[in-house]
């Protein structure tokens, strides 16, 4: 192996550690952090599955921070890279397998399991509104990549659970639940801008924050919403209160993180001190969520 390449490989872990990043876990529902071996002054434009990808400068290099959807196939994948007028290039990486556990919940409101035709029309309208937020890509020089936990309480349903409502299979759990009491303040885990709010069929009272470069967070089942669309929030600002609105069998916060329109495990973004604190908390049976 070339001596210069060996030195670069030895230095790479230190380079990656220099910038606060989410945990690198290239699995369905995870995050892949990929060196682009690019030292240009301007950030390259990177795409994955047709969606623009967040890039961050790390010393002299650029890193792609890629969200991986839960339904992504295992095996080799590729990023597409555009830089100025240069020819398009690709960088390959490998997705590894991960198995998630199964959870069965009983929902008393049968409409939340089998919506009516009118409900389905409402659900479609709300999905379009949320998708517009999830697919937005706002250029930003600094994007926060490590978060505080948005509410104080024990964690319940983890990300990725294969769910059955009233014994009927449904989509996997696309967020992390915090089983906090009703009325508990919900804080912005990092700076962001409010891009959508609403009382949604499944999610109940909901807030979506845009943190830049396709990194979006969502807060569901709120008792009340305390912010307005367009409002810029500092880290720690109160955006609402924990509740039991929408499809929920008990008070809790459902927290989702979306990266390049892929819902990924919020635990990967927690700051080290926030992550350490969660290991001290009892994790009760889930109160249920979307």
Distance between the terminal alpha carbons, to the nearest Å? 51 Å
Radius of gyration: 20 Å
Task: Using the 3D structure, state the CATH architecture of the largest domain.
Answer: Distorted Sandwich
Q: What name does the CATH topology of the largest domain carry?
A: Glucose Permease (Domain IIA)
**Portion in helices:** 10-25%
Main sheet: strands, sense, barrel? 9 strands, antiparallel
Secondary structure class reads alpha+beta
Shape: globular
Average pLDDT metric: 85
Q: Can you tell me the CATH class of the largest domain?
A: Mainly Beta
Give the helix/strand layout.
Layout: H1 3-17, E1 31-35, E2 45-48, E3 51-52, E4 54-58, E5 61-67, E6 75-82, E7 89-95, E8 102-105, H2 117-134, E9 162-165, E10 168-169, E11 176-178, E12 185-187, E13 192-200, E14 204-210, E15 215-225, E16 232-233, E17 238-242, E18 253-259, E19 262-264, H3 272-278
Parallel strand pairs: 8-9
Antiparallel strand pairs: 1-5, 2-3, 2-6, 4-5, 6-7, 9-10, 11-18, 12-17, 13-14, 13-16, 14-15, 15-17, 15-18, 18-19
How would you sum up this structure, described in words?
- The protein is α+β, with helices and mostly antiparallel strands and 290 residues long.
- It folds into two domains: 18-95, Immunoglobulin-like; 102-278, Glucose Permease (Domain IIA), CATH 2.70.70.
- The chain contains three helices and 19 strands.
- The protein has helices at 3-17, 117-134, 272-278, and strands at 31-35, 45-48, 51-52, 54-58, 61-67, 75-82, 89-95, 102-105, 162-165, 168-169, 176-178, 185-187, 192-200, 204-210, 215-225, 232-233, 238-242, 253-259, 262-264.
- Strand 14 (204-210) and strand 15 (215-225) form a beta hairpin.
- The chain is globular, with a radius of gyration of 20 Å.
- 39% of the residues are buried.
